Amino acid sequence: MTEVILDVKLKSYSVFLREDGIIQVDIEPITEVTIEEVIQGTNEVMNIVGINKYPVLFLAKEFSVPSKESREYLAKKEALPYSLADAYVICSFPQKLVANFYLRINKPARPTRIFTDKNEAIKWLKTFFEATI
Fold this sequence. Notes:
Number of strands: 8
Number of domains: 1
Radius of gyration: 14 Å
Strand content: 25-35%
Structural class: alpha/beta
Strand order of the largest sheet: 1-2-3-5-7-8
Shape: globular
CATH topology: Transcription Regulator spoIIAA
CATH superfamily: STAS domain
Number of helices: 4
Helix content: 25-40%
CATH class: Alpha Beta
CATH architecture: 2-Layer Sandwich
Largest sheet: 6 strands, mixed
C-alpha cells in the first residue's frame, strides 16, 4: 500500500495526491464550489506540499460548477501555487459552457485544458513531468 501524503476533504470537494504524482480534485455532484472553499483547500494543500509543484486533475461530477468568484480566483497565477498545469474533466453541457467561459474570459495563468475523457487528461498532465526534468 502506498503512503498517502495528501488527503484534504472539504464540503464540495476532496483532494489527494495520486501514486503517479498528480494531484486529483474530486468535486461533488450538484454543488457550487465557493471561493472560500477554494482558498481553504489551497491553504491546506500548501501546508502539506510546500513549494513542490504537481499537475492537477479536476474531476467535476454532474452539475458541479465553480462560482464566478472561484473562476476568477482560480485563473490567477497565485491561486494554486503548487500547480504545474490544470486539467478539468467535465461531464455535462452546462459544465462545457462554464469551462469555455473560463478559458476565454478568465484566461487562466497556468496551462489549462478541458477534457471529457479522464485518460486523455492524465496523458496531457504527464507531459508536464517531462518538461520539468
